[in-house]
From TrEMBL:
One of its GO terms (biological process) is fatty acid catabolic process. It comes from Cinchona calisaya. GO terms for molecular function: delta(3)-delta(2)-enoyl-CoA isomerase activity. The keyword Lyase does not apply. The keyword Plastid does not apply. Pathway: Lipid metabolism; fatty acid beta-oxidation. This is Delta(3)-Delta(2)-enoyl-CoA isomerase. Coiled coil: none annotated. InterPro entries: ClpP/crotonase-like_dom_sf, Enoyl-CoA_hydra/iso.
Amino acid sequence: MCSLEKIGNLFLLTLTGNDEHRLNPTFIDSIRAALHRVKTESTGPSALITTAQGKYFSNGYDLNWAGTNVGRQQLMSAKLRALVSDLLTLPMPTIAAITGHASAGGFVFALCHDYILMRKDRGFLYLSELDIGFKLPLWFLALLKSKIGSPMARREMAMKAAKLTAEMGVERGIIDSAHDSAEETVKAAVKLGEELVGRKWDGHVYGENRKAVFDEVLSALGFDETVGDFGSSTKIFSRL
């Protein structure tokens, strides 16, 4: 599922295996458990780096697992929203080192990090919902508005389902930098993490500031109006 390694004051969270890293409840729970460890094991200024093995960073929701079962769809959505909340409230800087495709919910997962680095020799950033006939939930759009400054870039992703390379992501202000390989991407993420740790910021203050910046996103996480028949509310997030 995932592994967690501590390197000095850096935490390296790796999505393990060569599958698509689909976001089903079991997988999300493993990531959330790792983030809980990060919070409890952090001593002093720290930073989190998230990366993945294989061809995919994450290919989004595990639609095969959920099928047409509304209860499973609700649970999967609620789990992802809880994970997003965990990341947006984590008391340290976060970096996504994207080493493969990041699609749909997988792109959203990456976008929740403070900094995004990506390899340029493989992988796309892709909101696939339009292509597969899914309505984008409002909390997805709240996150896009908070993280992607250009309305044209948001339109390209949400209304054209564009597949963006790392270099295209840099041009549109979606990611911070593009690198020659997976190894170079992780190496650059470690370097950035060390620089951020070197600032010796108070993690609690950092987390509170991030919560203020993304207040609208956090407020939108309470339910997903697209779950089920894409018109029914889901209000189990607060119980997770």
